[in-house]
Amino acid sequence: MLPTRNVLHVSLLFVFILLFACQTKRDGSVEGSIVPPSTTANISAVKDGKTVMTVSAGAQDGKFKLVLPAGTYAINVTTTGSPYPLNFNGIIVKPGEATTLPPIELTAAIGKATLSGKVIPPSPGSAVKLLWEGQERASVQTDNDGKYEFKELPAGTYLLQASSPGHAEDATQVVVADNQTVEQNAVLFPIMAIDGVDWAAGKIRSTGVGLPPQNAANETIRRAMAERAALANAQRNMIRTIEQIRIDANKTVKTAMNNKDFALKIQGFIKGYTVVSERDLDGGKVEVILELPLTGTAGLSRYISE
After folding, report:
1. Distance of CA 154 to the CA centre of its chain
2. DSSP collapsed to 3 states, 15-76
């Protein structure tokens, strides 16, 4: 029979092991790898603005693992060989599960160009990503004025993506020349229920129906005039849809069009529509559906940003 003191020690050890096992079950992990492997790459988990853990990537294989309590984190990757960190926001860690990030490619500071701009409306902490050849090269968050900046970029054509919760993502191509400073603004439209606006796809659509005239000389002319009327109707409906889009909490496109020059720009934008479908209806009527880009290089967001 064990002495009382030894029994107490064994009991405490058992409780400790049990608590450790329970804690381990509550923890999850974030795993990934740096490509190519870098001995200077540090990976940090940030929660509520505070760094809770930092590890280094493996020198041979570039792999890393962060064991974390369940929750939502921002994962930041930094290295002395890259002029800016990579930020992965909203990474969810589940109890007892591993969250695997895609291979992280860090680029060296080989350029001397700068890309900067502003996110409209200003939203502190909006995410701005820079992609090159389909891969993310850098990411930053905007400051209190919505400004961002990427330094030491090599010359090339990049895809700039801006996003913020509750807003439609904006993306546009930017050509950066060596030793040059390029400015590019992004516009994040607040998502709201508007018929004809596909926020996820970044598209605006409108439908128009045209009636044939009664006194047309022949069927060909009747059809052509009905089509023209359908286009005019669809363009008017497109304007009504665009006017409802909100630029910020206090301004819509309609109120911004009180500025005559801006109104002319929007009218020019609408003339760049694409006819996505056209069909004949009963009674000689014609229906057309028009489409315009909401965001992107030729989207409404570019007209707002300018």
Report:
1. 23
2. HHHHHHHHHHHHEEEEEEEEECCCCCCEEEEEECCEEEEEEECCCCCCEEEEEEECEEEEEE
Q: How far is CA 183 from CA 5, 173, 210, 224, 300, in A?
A: 73, 12, 44, 45, 18
Q: What is the count of structural domains for the chain?
A: 3
88 and 6 both lie in a single domain: yes
Q: Coil, strand, or helix at residue 233?
A: helix
Do 178 and 223 belong to one domain?
no
Structure tokens at 241: 């849809």
Which residues make Cβ contacts (< 8 Å) with residue 113, sequence separation at least 6?
152, 153, 154, 155, 176, 177, 178, 179, 180, 181, 182
Domain region containing 283? 197-305
Rounded Cα distance, 240 and 197, in Å: 11
Q: Which two tokens stand for residue 1?
A: 């029979």
Per-residue pLDDT tens over the stretch 50-106: 899 999 988 888 899 999 999 999 898 887 656 566 778 889 999 999 999 988 876
Is the backbone peptide bond immediately before 3 cis, with ω within 30 degrees of 0? no
Q: Residue 88's CB: how many other CB atoms inside 10 A?
A: 19
Domain boundary among 56, 81, 106: 106
- Establish how many alpha carbons lie within 13 A of residue 232's alpha carbon, considering only the half-sphere containing its beta carbon: 8
Boundary residue ending a domain (166, 188, 210):
188
Asked whether residue 242 falls in the same domain as residue 291, the answer is yes
Two tokens at 181?
């400073």
β-strand pairing of 113-120 with 186-187:
parallel
15 pLDDT exceeds 50?
no
**Residue 58: its pLDDT value, please?**
85
Same domain, 87 and 130: no
